[in-house]
Amino acid sequence: MPVVDAALQQRLVERMARIEEMLADHCRGRAQFVSEAAAHLMMAGGKRFRPLLVLLAAEAGPDPDADAVDTAACVVELTHVASLYHDDVMDEASLRRGAHTANARWDNNVAILTGDFLFGRSSELTAELGPEAVLIQARTFTRLVEGQIMETVPPGPGEDPLEHYLDVVAGKTGSLIATSARYGAMFSGARPDVVEALSSYGEIVGSAFQLTDDILDIASESDTSGKTPGTDLREGVPTLPVLMAQASTDPADARLLSLLGRPLTDDAEHAEALELMRRHPAMDQARDHVLAEAARAKKLLEALDPGPVRTALESFADIVATRSS
After folding, report:
1. Could you tell me which Pfam families the record lists for this protein (predicted)?
2. N or C: where does the chain have the smaller number of CB atoms within 10 Å of the terminal CB?
3. Residue 114 CB contacts under 8 Å (≥ 6 apart), including other chains
4. What are the structural domains of the chain?
């Protein structure tokens, strides 16, 4: 998070240190094995963007140091990490944040139940925040899970594949980031219009972050991004630029269209598809879409008073739209 105000940065650093302590405590179960499994991914690191957004959004209200803000920051991170345990089982992943996933270290049953344990911890904390927070969390969780389910099924008859995908991203990624911003503003006593503006900002920026990942999957080089280029492309996973390319009616795209939308297990075909995608106008269309979303998010921040909080959020929207790793 690009915070240029020294005083604000110091407050956030100190508050995040407290959040880390709280998260470690909330991962503890009655049995040592449960504690070890629950802390496995939590202590592996991560951006902690969601709790940090809670704290930053809280600075838009008159009481940013409220205990409920800290509790809310833990709620969203516990929910996020819990979902990662389930994601890894669904994806049959073996690594997460440079460490073995729980399903690889133990098995799928342990991973699923550990995710459930963390969801339970998150629910306990949400109950402390009151009925309104419980309702918000329930709706957020419903959208998150529905997005995960919809990702596994193709668009229905007559449904636009791109709109289907954007809806999946908004549910899977945008919904919890929207709630992060909402909680921070709400529990610090921000005005209702600021709460709504920050919630909408969070959903847009959260979705844009995933869409930028889609672009980087194709555009980045492994030596600069640290990731294997074209991973989603190889697995036949629909992404923003791929879906935009598939909407093409240009006969010159016939070869590319024949390669897209199916797993590319052949290395030569994968390399060919990657090169064709990098040269395709869909890449610029995808970048333009993300830039437009960032501009839309920044427009919402006009509800906030000018100052370091608003500046940091505006800068973050720009970084999300233009990042290279």
Report:
1. polyprenyl_synt (PF00348)
2. C
3. 34, 37, 38, 40, 85, 102
4. 1-149 (1.10.600.10), 191-325 (1.10.600.10)
Backbone angles phi, psi at 322, to 5 degrees: -120, 5
The pLDDT score that the predictor gives to residue 92 is: 66
CB-CB contact of 122 with 137 (8 Å):
yes
Question: Are the CB atoms for 181 and 297 separated by under 8 Å?
Answer: no
pLDDT over threshold 50, residue 226: no
pLDDT in tens, 121-136: 999 999 999 999 999 9
pLDDT of residue 95: 65
Task: Please give the Cα distance from 64 to 188 (Å, whole number).
Answer: 5
Share of the chain above pLDDT 90, in %: 69
Q: Is the pLDDT of residue 278 over 80?
A: yes
d(CA 92, CA 108): 9
